[in-house]
Amino acid sequence: MVEAIRFRDDEVHEEPAVSLDAFLDQSNATAVRIEAGEDARLLLPLLDRLALIEVDFPVFGDGRGYSAAQILREAGYKGELRASGDVLVDQIAYMRRCGFDAFAPDAPIDARVMDKALELYEEVYQSTTDSRAPIWKRRHG
């Protein structure tokens, strides 16, 4: 198992994430795993119970997890949002913008390469859950 990458200051949540179906059927879990194609909106009424939501990326080209992250953060989720699976270094900056603050990639990611990738682009083009204003808004108000 590759070591998780975290952009959070709180303690690592050690409880294993249960499946979405298992979480919806029980009352005591604080960590849930959303598989590709599952509807993150099912968690919205229960966000206050969750310390960790793990979103699976079965292949790097499957972008459904980005939408899940955006939905959860826009709904006010403040806990750890972890991208797991086929997470590549060049995706981390985009995942961070959608609200992911932790990563559990299948393959190791070189920290130096990741830091460079995160600093590569000063300006952004789309609005999302982070506080950075897109360049078009800065140019045109």
Give the neighbour order of strands across the main sheet.
1-6-5-4-3-2
Which residues form runs of ≥5 with pLDDT under 50? none
**What's the number of extended β-strand segments?**
6
- CATH architecture field: 3-Layer(aba) Sandwich
| Fraction of residues in helix | 25-40%
Question: Number of DSSP helices?
Answer: 5
CATH fold-level label: Rossmann fold
In the residues, how many domains can be counted?
Answer: 1
Please tell me the overall pLDDT: 89
SS content category: alpha/beta
Beta-strand percent range: 15-25%
**Sheet with the most strands, sense and barrel status:** 6 strands, mixed
Query: Which CATH first-tier class would you pick?
Result: Alpha Beta
The best one-word shape is globular
Distance between the termini: 46 Å
Provide the succession of SSEs. EEHEEHEHEHH
- Quaternary: single chain
